[in-house]
Design goal:
Layout: E1 3-4, H1 15-25, H2 36-55, E2 63-66, H3 69-87, E3 93-97, H4 102-113, E4 117-121, H5 131-139, E5 145-149, H6 163-171, E6 177-180, H7 192-195, E7 199-203, E8 214-218, H8 244-259, H9 265-283, E9 288-289, E10 297-298, E11 301-302, E12 308-312, H10 318-327, E13 330-331, H11 347-351, H12 356-359, E14 362-366, H13 373-397
Parallel strand pairs: 1-13, 3-4, 3-5, 5-6, 6-7
Antiparallel strand pairs: 2-8, 7-8, 9-12, 10-11, 12-14
């Protein structure tokens, strides 16, 4: 029997959400069409928009459907910057944390190639941005800052950021804030109004929905320059035929995911996370737990995602350990799935102050609502041998002991 410890990469599509998805796929009608079938599709789409908005503490008009988190991030960073720059040519500076998902990092680098100045917000050992750092960077020349983008929760090490405080600091200078909340949704409370941000990215497949649908929750005062051009759907900032089935499934998945925050599911996940972390540090004594505190909090939110255990395992090679655990029946990860197969150290760990060797030795274990204690204990039982074999393989590869 296999056990899945890679929910941060994608989560299983639940039976209930699959039912919603397939029922909608059987219906016909383009939500932009004027005939009865089209208008019926529009009604179902707007129902999904309302339900998704309620799940994230937003207004329906603030939800812009996209093809996923990557598109939402691109639209936010590129689109908001372009709009701000058009309003005021002085606003050339974009502030981005050093541990962002590559959808943000590469969007920022694209802007840099077009003349923007990217200022990287450093993080501490836990991978957290200090709001005072944001304040100091802005204060150097507030009138030249276009936007700030800091993710709500990191996809590798699970650290939760003080986004509400960052937003307050930026807003004092009329600077919009975007946050990538893809990993946070369903694991910590995600409330657009409470966070006080201007744009927030989410996606369905991290919360038990289908791949291929996401959303940018966007303040109505912002009008990003579109990344896609066409029919002018979604407030004319995201053209394209609307995915009614995906929207309906996303709304259903988001409702279920947010309900788990209060029904005991998330608390159970956190307890299993703690069991895994403690057992791992006990069986592999030189392992180093990365990210935020297991029992801390940050501005009323958990300091770390309840389903995330990320460790540096000295002497291991992350990919070899992954394959050994995979052969033993456990699906794990060395970091972001978007960087799988890329032979380079984690930019997140490097930003946290780990060296390249340490950054290549990491393993990420991410739990989901269906994870059991038996699975955690089985993983703990398999880890010591897998770690030892990975270390031995590393010695052989380095020309050392055989």
């Amino acid at each position: 029997m296999r056990a899945y410890f890679d929910h941060a990469a994608t989560s299983p599509l639940t039976d209930e959400v699959l039912g919603t998805y397939t029922d909608e796929l059987r219906r016909i009608g383009n939500a932009s069409s004027q005939h009865a079938e089209g208008q019926a599709a529009r009604v179902r789409l707007e129902s999904a928009r309302r339900r998704l908005a309620q799940a994230v503490g937003a207004e329906p008009a603030q939800v812009v459907f996209t093809s996923g988190g990557t598109e939402a991030d691109n639209l936010a960073v590129k689109g908001i910057h372009a709009a701000r720059l058009a309003q005021d040519p002085r606003r050339t500076r974009v502030l981005v944390s050093t541990i962002e998902h590559h959808a943000i990092l590469e969007s920022a680098e694209h802007l840099e190639s077009r003349g923007a100045t990217i200022e990287w917000l450093e993080v501490d050992r836990a991978g957290r941005v200090d709001p005072q750092v944001v304040a100091d960077v802005i204060a150097r020349d507030p009138e030249t800052v276009s936007l700030v983008s800091v993710m709500l929760a990191n996809n590798e090490i699970g650290t939760v950021q003080p986004i509400a405080r960052i937003a307050q600091i930026a807003h004092a200078h009329d600077i919009p804030v975007h946050t990538d909340a893809v990993q946070a949704l369903g694991q910590v409370p995600v409330d657009f109004a409470t966070l006080g941000v201007d744009a927030l990215s989410i996606t369905a497949h991290k919360v038990g929905g289908p791949v291929g649908v996401g959303a940018l929750v966007l303040s109505r005062t912002l009008a990003p320059v579109p990344v896609l051009h066409g029919g002018g759907q979604e407030r004319s900032v995201r053209s394209g035929t609307l995915d009614v089935a995906g929207a309906a499934a996303f709304a259903h998945a988001a409702e279920r995911a947010t309900a788990r925050l209060t029904d005991g599911t998330t608390a159970r996940m956190a307890a299993l996370r703690d069991r895994l972390a403690a057992g791992l540090l006990d069986t592999v004594p030189d392992a180093v737990l990365t990210g935020g505190d297991l029992d801390g909090d940050i501005d009323g939110l958990p300091a770390r995602l309840p389903g995330n255990v990320h460790v540096v395992l000295p002497g291991c090679e992350g990919a070899s350990l992954l394959f050994l655990l995979d052969a033993a029946g456990f699906a794990t990860s060395t970091g972001s799935a978007c960087q799988a197969g890329v032979a380079r150290p984690s930019h997140v760990l490097l930003a946290c102050g780990f060296d390249e060797e340490q950054s290549r030795s990491a393993q990420r274990f991410t739990l989901g609502p269906e994870t059991t204690q038996q699975q955690v204990d089985a993983l703990l039982a398999a880890l010591p041998e897998a770690v030892e074999r990975s270390r031995q393989a590393g010695l052989v590869g380095a020309g050392g002991a055989r």
